[in-house]
């Protein structure tokens, strides 16, 4: 669910540009090609949602650079060929270094490795939760 939220947030950043809601009579799909992925009946609701996500998630409690680095990790985890270059570009625009981006990718790789080891070996969940008590 977290990864799906990140993917939706990515679209929010692309769709929340002022051109989407410029009020000049253009359809939102014409102003932003990604809006063309939405059913026409949903354009206004989608634009409002994406603007809110951009304001409250990518410019919210976590600083923009760090949010974009997290989005890179999530993008790598879901192997999204669209999200990886988009969030890399946005992370660099927010001041991320190549080393920080490589580290975000390495974090995704480490999580995937440990997940595969635990899941593949059918590690006991109760035993696992003993390692990380709430």
Dominant shape: extended
Per DSSP, the total helix count is 7
Helix and strand sequence: HHHHHHH
SS elements, strand count: 0
Structural class: mainly alpha
Strand content: under 5%
Helix content: 55-70%
Q: What Rg do the Cα atoms give?
A: 18 Å
> What summary fits the major beta sheet?
none
The residue-averaged pLDDT reads 83
Distance between the termini: 21 Å
Return residue spans where pLDDT drops below 50 for at least 5 consecutive residues: 1-25
Can you give a write-up of this model?
- With 134 residues, the protein is an all-alpha fold.
- Helices cover 66% and strands 0% of the residues.
- The protein has helices at residues 2-15, 28-31, 43-58, 64-77, 83-93, 98-120, 125-131.
Structural features:
134 residues; mainly alpha
Topology (SSEs and partners):
Blueprint lengths: L1 H14 L12 H4 L11 H16 L5 H14 L5 H11 L4 H23 L4 H7 L3
Helix pairs in contact: 1-3, 1-4, 4-5, 4-6
Summarize the entry for a quick read.
This protein is mainly alpha-helical and 134 residues long. 66% of the residues lie in helices and 0% in strands. The chain has helices at 2-15, 28-31, 43-58, 64-77, 83-93, 98-120, 125-131.
């Amino acid at each position: 669910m977290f990864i799906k939220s990140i993917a939706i947030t990515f679209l929010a950043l692309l769709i929340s540009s002022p051109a989407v809601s410029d009020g000049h009579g253009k359809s939102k799909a014409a102003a932003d090609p990604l809006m063309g992925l939405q059913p026409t009946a949903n354009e206004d609701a989608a634009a409002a949602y994406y603007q809110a996500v951009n304001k409250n998630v990518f410019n919210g409690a976590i600083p923009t650079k760090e949010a974009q680095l997290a989005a890179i990790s999530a993008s790598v985890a879901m192997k999204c060929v669209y999200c990886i270059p988009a969030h890399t570009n946005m992370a660099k625009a927010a001041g991320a270094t190549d080393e920080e981006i490589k580290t975000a990718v390495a974090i995704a790789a480490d999580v995937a490795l440990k997940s595969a080891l635990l899941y593949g070996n059918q590690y006991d969940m109760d035993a696992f939760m003993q390692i990380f008590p709430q």
